[in-house]
Design a protein that fits this description.
The protein is mainly beta. It has two domains: about 100 residues, Phosphorylase Kinase, domain 1, CATH 3.30.200; about 80 residues, Elongation Factor Tu (Ef-tu), domain 3, CATH 2.40.30.290. It contains one helix and 14 strands, in the order E-E-E-H-E-E-E-E-E-E-E-E-E-E-E. Strands 1, 2, 3, 4, 12, 13 and 14 form a seven-stranded mixed beta sheet that branches. A three-stranded antiparallel beta sheet has the order 5-6-11, with no helix packed on it. A two-stranded antiparallel ribbon has the order 7-10. The longest helix has 14 residues. It is globular.
Length: about 190
């Protein structure tokens, strides 16, 4: 079971990104390129803690100890794209493996429900909505997302849109931080866990 991110532990800087699973071939004769896109893209997150006072350092190091390097997983919230509006109680209607879109149900009818850049989390996997989405009269909407769906998401799975997060694991097995008198600092890298 994934660890919850400690609410009081705030980094001074966070870098989010997606690592796509593309492969390229460049012809030595014509310099033409062929690119193949495969499922398996994942979110990457780098957190920098510039100033860790003793209680923060203890919170962070104990979290890292519970993760056991790359073995454990942690739920990392995406703090700058939260929402407070109500668009209903969305669940998955159809989300097939390798698709770049999914159909949601349980939305408020006939309105704009998602804007470009909104984030949703389904079963620990986070997606960015890449096109505006409108719901129909039945409260269904198709959303286009930034990465292919890795595996079939069961119908009825709840969709978190107000407080998006991603279940992640450490990118390496080494836990280290720098300690100076009074304060500590650390930079940690995580990748989406699957």
């Amino acid at each position: 079971m994934a660890e919850e991110w400690p609410e009081d532990l705030e980094p001074t800087e966070v870098t989010w990104g997606v690592v796509y699973n593309n492969r390229g071939f460049t012809s030595s004769l014509s310099n033409a390129q062929q690119i193949v896109a495969q499922p398996g893209s994942y979110w990457k997150c780098t957190m920098t803690f510039g100033f860790l006072y003793e209680e923060d350092e203890r919170e962070l190091t104990s979290l890292l100890g519970r993760l056991h390097g790359m073995f454990g997983t942690v739920i990392i919230p995406y703090l700058t794209r939260t929402r407070s509006d109500n668009i209903g109680a969305p669940t998955v209607a159809v989300a097939n493996a390798q698709a770049s879109s999914m159909q949601l149900q349980g939305l408020l009818a006939s309105r704009k429900v998602f804007s470009r850049g909104d984030l949703v989390t389904i079963r620990g996997e986070m997606f960015e909505v890449v096109e505006n989405a409108l719901s129909d009269a039945a409260g269904k909407a198709v959303i286009s997302v930034n990465k292919r769906i890795r595996k079939l998401i069961p119908a009825g799975s709840p969709v978190e849109y107000k407080n998006p997060y991603c279940e992640m694991r450490r990118m390496d097995d080494t836990n280290e931080w720098t300690t100076q008198p009074v304060v500590s600092n650390s930079t940690l890298q995580f990748r989406e866990a699957f």
